[in-house]
Amino acid sequence: MITTILLTFGVLFLAELGDKSQLMALTFALRYRWWVVLSAITVASVLVNLIAVGVGHFLGAALPTEIISLFAAAILIGVGLWTLRETLPGREDGDEAEDEAQLPASRSAFFVVLSAFLLAELGDRTMFATMALATNNGWVAVWIGSVLGMVAAGGLAILVGVTVGKHVPERTIAVCSGLLFLYFGATTLLGTVAPGLGTVAMVAAGALLPLAAGAVLLVLRRRAGSGEPHVHHPDAEALPRSSAQASPPDAH
Fold first, then answer.
1. CA of 119: how far to CAs of 26, 69, 144, 188, in Å?
2. Pair 9, 152: CB distance under 8 Å
3. I need a surface site. Which of 40, 78, 94, 113 has the fewest CB within 10 A?
4. pLDDT digits over 189-223, tens only?
């Protein structure tokens, strides 16, 4: 059993390195508290790998991955648009209190991360790896090893996200994370509706959505910057007059 756990852990950990799920963990860690992201990833890993070992060991059937991927893409794009909404011009000064009130609470953030990871992992390559391991090994050991491998990979990504977040301005983090969410959503959608696309074509096509959103955001910020009213200080005209009144008369 220990051998199976270690084998599954190694396979899942290596499979998650650089995978979309790990990049999602890093991105979520830039926006939400690290313990919320880690706990949501843990719960999602427990559930998705339980489904994987159950399907692989007992049923040997496939899940409706296309429908699940469409839901995952919708959630990721929705989170990306909502994150970019917080960076719109005119919301950085007077709307700070409103922004704080609109930021997701810990419970809401937990369910956002949980649903996104759960849907993203269902039908992912790591799930099929877990299913394959469960067909020839004990499902309990495969389940434990797969959960530990996914949580370890997610924890590594969270550590990187927390470290980066300490040295990058909050608004920059919001823009970058929003664009990344859009990219993940776009690639997930393309992988579902156009599975025949190559890797290069999918990466290029998936980047169109965040590039378009970034261009719109840049245009809005430039318009807002050029349209800022000039602040008139009434004391500026009164200053020379006051100075003249305060100066002593010339001695004759």
1. 17, 7, 20, 11
2. yes
3. 94
4. 888 888 788 878 888 888 999 999 989 888 888 88
